[in-house]
């Protein structure tokens, strides 16, 4: 029996190959991703600051939007800075502990986004279908509990996956043909039986993606039925405008998620898989602030007020 060079050796760090198959594009990729990262951080930070300092935006819908924008900042920051580093670095390594930590935050934040989108669909359902009860039901403390529960639940669920994952032994090879530590390429490097880990991850990921998606679908089915019952065209337009931004974000998020994890087959090239992964790690966080501010009159008014205010030393 032939013994491979890495057998019986415990791996202490992984090599993230990233986009090393295209070294001639390193500078172009670095500059492109750096610009996109700056746009993501700037756009989402702007949304957070506008909502925090503009009293008319202190409503449940914008409270959840702040949570979503705050999440996008950390979701992208968990992956992109390290990706930029490995594009230019000669030694593209990450420790096993660092890799596990990156996957933990990636999984937790992605799951939290699913629940936050479901909570936001519930908020829109109450606003359209039960407008008279909306101020009574969507109180400040209730909104805080909904948001906090989403964060806490998803971080705890990901911990359930991390327990068996952290107990796996990695004996080599140590190369991950990806630009971050995703679950599948990480588990494939284990030299132990990973069936329990994969089953646990499948159950928890299905729970935090499928259940919120079904809830969102049910919410918008009720919203659509309520809109169709509105006799006035102006009333229908107003009801649609309150939901269009959120529905677009849901479609972009789940669309990129499906494109990343369901569409690629076993025969798909790894470069194609990386391209799909870029959709939900960069495209979605970049589009969210654009979608919410593009046709949002409240956001436009808040921006105008902030721009029209003179600094204190000019008054």
From TrEMBL:
<dbReference type="InterPro" id="IPR017452">
    <property type="entry name" value="GPCR_Rhodpsn_7TM"/>
</dbReference>
<dbReference type="InterPro" id="IPR050939">
    <property type="entry name" value="Olfactory_GPCR1"/>
</dbReference>
<comment type="similarity">
    <text>Belongs to the G-protein coupled receptor 1 family.</text>
</comment>
<keyword id="KW-0472">Membrane</keyword>
<keyword id="KW-0675">Receptor</keyword>
<feature type="transmembrane region" description="Helical">
    <location>
        <begin position="101"/>
        <end position="122"/>
    </location>
</feature>
<keyword id="KW-1133">Transmembrane helix</keyword>
<feature type="transmembrane region" description="Helical">
    <location>
        <begin position="142"/>
        <end position="165"/>
    </location>
</feature>
<feature type="transmembrane region" description="Helical">
    <location>
        <begin position="27"/>
        <end position="52"/>
    </location>
</feature>
<feature type="transmembrane region" description="Helical">
    <location>
        <begin position="275"/>
        <end position="294"/>
    </location>
</feature>
<comment type="function">
    <text>Putative odorant or sperm cell receptor.</text>
</comment>
<dbReference type="InterPro" id="IPR000725">
    <property type="entry name" value="Olfact_rcpt"/>
</dbReference>
<keyword id="KW-0325">Glycoprotein</keyword>
<keyword id="KW-1003">Cell membrane</keyword>
<feature type="transmembrane region" description="Helical">
    <location>
        <begin position="64"/>
        <end position="89"/>
    </location>
</feature>
<dbReference type="Pfam" id="PF13853">
    <property type="entry name" value="7tm_4"/>
</dbReference>
<keyword id="KW-0297">G-protein coupled receptor</keyword>
<keyword id="KW-1015">Disulfide bond</keyword>
<keyword id="KW-0716">Sensory transduction</keyword>
<feature type="transmembrane region" description="Helical">
    <location>
        <begin position="239"/>
        <end position="263"/>
    </location>
</feature>
<keyword id="KW-0812">Transmembrane</keyword>
<feature type="domain" description="G-protein coupled receptors family 1 profile">
    <location>
        <begin position="43"/>
        <end position="292"/>
    </location>
</feature>
<keyword id="KW-0807">Transducer</keyword>
<dbReference type="InterPro" id="IPR000276">
    <property type="entry name" value="GPCR_Rhodpsn"/>
</dbReference>
<protein>
    <recommendedName>
        <fullName>Olfactory receptor</fullName>
    </recommendedName>
</protein>
<feature type="transmembrane region" description="Helical">
    <location>
        <begin position="202"/>
        <end position="227"/>
    </location>
</feature>
<keyword id="KW-0552">Olfaction</keyword>
């Amino acid at each position: 029996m032939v013994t491979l060079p890495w057998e019986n050796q415990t791996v202490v760090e992984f090599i993230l190959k990233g986009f090393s198959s295209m070294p001639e594009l390193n500078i172009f990729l670095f500059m492109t991703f750096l610009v996109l990262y700056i746009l993501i951080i700037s756009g989402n930070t702007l949304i957070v600051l506008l909502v925090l300092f503009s009293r008319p935006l202190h409503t449940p819908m914008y409270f959840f939007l702040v949570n979503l924008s705050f999440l996008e900042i950390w979701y992208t920051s968990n992956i992109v800075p390290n990706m930029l580093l490995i594009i230019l670095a000669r030694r593209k390594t990450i420790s096993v502990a660092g890799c596990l930590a990156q996957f933990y935050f990636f999984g937790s934040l992605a799951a939290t986004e699913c629940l936050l989108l479901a909570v936001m669909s519930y908020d829109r359902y109450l606003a359209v279908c039960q407008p008279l009860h909306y101020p009574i039901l969507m109180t400040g403390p209730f909104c805080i509990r909904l948001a906090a529960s989403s964060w806490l639940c998803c971080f705890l669920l990901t911990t359930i996956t991390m327990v068996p994952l952290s107990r796996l032994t990695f004996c080599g090879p140590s190369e991950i043909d990806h630009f971050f530590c995703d679950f599948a390429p990480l588990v494939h490097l284990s030299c132990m039986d990973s069936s329990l880990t994969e089953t646990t991850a499948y159950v928890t990921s299905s729970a935090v993606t499928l259940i919120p998606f079904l809830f969102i679908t049910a919410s918008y089915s009720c919203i659509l039925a309520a809109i169709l019952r509105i006799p006035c065209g102006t009333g229908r337009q107003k009801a649609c405008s309150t939901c269009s931004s959120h529905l677009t974000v849901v479609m972009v998020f789940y669309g990129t998620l499906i494109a990343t994890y369901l569409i690629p087959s076993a025969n798909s090239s790894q470069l194609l898989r990386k391209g799909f992964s870029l959709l939900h790690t960069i495209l979605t966080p970049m589009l969210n602030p654009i979608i919410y501010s593009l046709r949002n009159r409240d956001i436009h008014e808040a921006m105008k007020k902030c721009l029209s205010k003179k600094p204190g030393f000019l008054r």
